[in-house]
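Researcher: Next sequence.
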Amino acid sequence: MRGFKFSFFILNFLFLSLITGCSSSENGSSNTSQSTQRICPQCNMPVPESNIYSCNLENNGKISYFDDIGCLILWTKNQKIDINAAKAEVFTNDTHKYINIKDAYYTINEKTPMNYGFAAYEHKKEDTFYIKIDEVKLKMLRGEHLANPKIRKQILGY
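Model: Next structure:
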């Protein structure tokens, strides 16, 4: 009988420890910070607060945020969403604001969060090679981006 009471006491103690541990204030505070954090639906990485290389897409009243332009391209292909029909914006490296994805000029050789290499600019600079979003989309879907080692070596030389 004494062993039964001791076992019952230990089980209750463990149960209470489990309950109080799961509802601690540390856990609650991390949930609130995660709910305000924007997560890329393609790669599940957080979108940087600086918004650099990021973009967003509004489709059917829902806004999705992406940490890399390449993630947007891959996600819209998987979701069967036409980028040209939806409202899509990209954060530009030169003016540091969101503009329509079709109005931006893209470079192909930058260090981006997912290493795809595409960066948006609102204004062209001399002596810089730019492409438009249709070519970015084509290159992403073909695998012609910096995450591909053969393409990285071809573009960057290493």
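Model: Strands lie at 55-59, 62-66, 87-91, 98-100, 105-107, 119-121. The radius of gyration is 23 Å.
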